[in-house]
User: Fold this.
Amino acid sequence: MDTISISQLKTHPSKIIAEAADYPVSITNRNKTEAYLLGAELYEKIISYLEDFVDTKAVKNTNFKKGKDFEKVAKQLGI
Assistant:
């Protein structure tokens, strides 16, 4: 992971944003990490992965034997 200072980000924002497109960039202030810069595509991939992970976990932890018949519920709801 690349690490840059806030001063470098202020001086060359377009360059740093371009670098962050493929891989996160750590933004530091006085040698302490203050933030991480991610490109939009990478951020969306991470969010999609997390959503899929949460959904998969919910399905694995669900006891479908306790559930109601979908067709009956759909009929009651008029769908």
In short: Residues 24 and 38 are 5 Å apart (CA to CA). The longest strand covers residues 32-37. Strands lie at 2-5, 25-29, 32-37.
